[in-house]
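Protocol step 4 of 6: structure prediction from sequence.
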Amino acid sequence: MQNYDVIVVGAGPGGTTVASLLANSGKKVLLIDKNQKPGGRMMTINRDGFSYELFPINCVPQHDSLFEKLSQTLGKENHVKLILGDDFGIGKLFYENREGEITSWQMGLKFPGVLKMFGFIGVKPWQLRSIFQIARVVGKLRAMDETEISALYNVSAMEYLDSLGPMPAGFRTFMLASFGEGAFEMTSDRVAAGEMVRMFQETFSGSGGRYYEGGVGHFFEVMAQTVEEKGGKVRMNARVESINTWDGSVCGITTQTGETYTAPVVISNAGIRQTVLKLVGEDKFETDYVERIKSLESNLACVGYRYFTSRPVLTSPMMVLFPEGCVAKYSEFEAIAHGEAKPENGYIYLGTTSLYPNMAPVDKQVVYAVVSCLPALHVESKPCLEYIEKGVRKIAPELYEPDVITHTEIMTTAIVPSVGNDAILPGQGGESYGIANSIGQAGPHRPKGDTPISGLYIVGNDTEGFGLGTHQAVDSGFKVYEKVVAWLDN
């Protein structure tokens, strides 16, 4: 039996953030994880000279992110090399209208690049009414203050945008696909409008993407080193069997191999549902709290390809195909999952991290090509894969030229629990991040990091925080850190 001030279960972005911050503040910390190294779903894979994540990732914002706040707080800003999107291009978007005509836009939010967006969504320079409609909507969203945004958490992004009056179909498609499914991996008829507006404002403040040499997972590997440097312990390849409580308070953990560690604080990065229903046990909580946890819905998952190429193919780190009307409702994904419909009009993401320094062998790339799907573990992937290949041939046909692809890996929902949260409820387990930013569980309605059990906290994408995926998890890490320090100091 070993004693600590704090035990952190799970070394994903949220868990690594809070563990390293607590260790840096002088607390004796145990960081324990089932994987071979930190990073969770964003773990960096190193294989055959390639460094890459299992899934595509966009790190937003480009400047002044919480990642940089974390590395600076820990004194590790010179241990990980930040790569700015401005140096490699933000990305290229493709819009396909109903006649099959494709227009493109090399993203840019500064003049004159932003003007090219009108052509991308099918608006001609002489269509002044359409331009006015777009300017009116953009102006309104950019001018909203925090009070106005806070009032939009009980309405969906789709419903709110449609309430703003007529607008060009291409602009509506771009907005809802980008700031719904694209930003939060959830359909815009479920995403809370407040989240959409906040992300829109962050994007239009001049933000682009960023990355880290060695991979996003490598960033968290470096941050996790703080735990041992400050006298704590990092245990990898160790699965936690239970989080232990006594008389309404947390008291430690037991591993699957029977080891016991004690602490007055346990922070779980294993998922809020997994923590409450499995690691602690629902009998330790009030019924209302358990029912609330069970009712939370996951965000979407992704299915697709990782192509390994013999020569460079993509010249932009991100390419997205938006067919007109590709804004799907959640019911459409359900119909596809149940075999009642086929994916025929979805948003396709194509990208690579191999353009960044030291991420791939010279003149080779690993290319992601994915679409969204329900997070159930046994989603039929074949229709999605066929749709992806059909779409990619429209925007990057050179990928399928002879001898370009050396080998292919298929991404499915079934592989997600191997590196992410365990699957414990029907219809979930393959989600890209965790709890969706949907109505009733986003913004002020997001589950809190503290729980009814004294000393037990939840960190990561499932609690508190704002941002695009991994950034939200890091934000949660900072917020839970503040709560835990206050609890320990009192």
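Step 5 (inspection) to follow. The mean pLDDT is 94.
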